[in-house]
Amino acid sequence: MATARGKWCLDDLDKAMQEVKEHGLSIRKASYKYGIPRSTIHDHVTGKIERVRHGPSPVLTEEEESELVSWVIKMAEIGYGQTRIQVTEMVKKILDRTGRPN
Predict the structure, then answer these.
(1) Which of 8, 23, 49, 94 is close enough to 43 for a disulfide, judged by CB 3.0 to 4.6 Å?
(2) Cβ neighbour number for residue 16 with a 10 Å cutoff
């Protein structure tokens, strides 16, 4: 996903930060290589800016979400498309199985 002001994406920022932190690439060279402003890379590398996820925390883990997606796709492939209520009930089953409140 490209930013509104620039032509770079968050994946490129992650790659640039990784090269700076782990491989010793200078911020200036990373900026040139990935087309991201030096100040942006610097702010993220030094922790001045942290990427946070806005909104409520996810209910399911990534693994549980993948399980849910696989189930929905499998049901659709055999001709049983699921309603919102049915998907919600499946989420409840997953949460009950792990003993977490819903």
Answers:
(1) 49
(2) 24
